[in-house]
# Entry
Amino acid sequence: MDALIGWIGGKRLLRKTISQYVPKDIQGYIEPFGGAAWMLLFKDKWGDLEVYNDLDYRLVNLFLQVKYHPDELIKELDFLVASRKLFGDILKQEGLTEIQRAARFMFLITRSFGSKGDSFGTSQKRGTSSMYNRLERIKELHRRLDMVIIENLSYEKVIEKYDTKSNFFYCDPPYMLGYTYENSKQFSHETLRDILKNIKGRFILSYDDNPEVLKLYKGYDIRHVTRTKGINRKEGKSEFNEVIIANFDLVDTDQDTAKTKAKTTKEIRGIS
# Structure
């Protein structure tokens, strides 16, 4: 199913490509950087254990309300019409209850430019997106989250808590280049590399394709992929290059891989 909201760096356009590399024999599927959960929602079930985690409590609270109070959340959203004035008012006051905060956060993200949540978004070509469709999606997501554990921890603690040989981590950290949410601007890419180097389980890591990333993960299996930019498109620069990195051999299982313009830079693994 589709995610409930858009999110900068969301994997809507790459989740089919990434999913083909996820091992079939995993017991647990864990996302330390859950975001809008595009990857989690690509399948009805990834493993006996599924964990969604994000450090941003706004996201976590939204998923908690969808899981435990879907009807109340729908009622709250039903009164939030697409209005620039209302958008400005909500920016000043988040709400009084957790359900109100979740509803208003969802409103700001879905009604803002580029899902940034800070400015009211409009288009010269089409009207506003349907809130009714999103309300229906809340009901679907409520059922999908039934057995999913929702955490609000640092990625370090989540990896430490759930790391076993049979568990798998899909990591989509803040990228080195491009737009980053305020709470991720001081992110240490070196620390993440050091933690992943020593885990017991397997992981797939998404990153922007740049020399610093390739240097940090030299010796891992790396695939280069290209996707269409979601926002800030410029003539001749409508594509964004990313990499898929793993601590195991990535094997193509989907005949449509070529459509993603994937290229292999497979190196002999000598991870120290």
Q: What stands out?
A: The first strand starts at residue 28 and ends at 31.
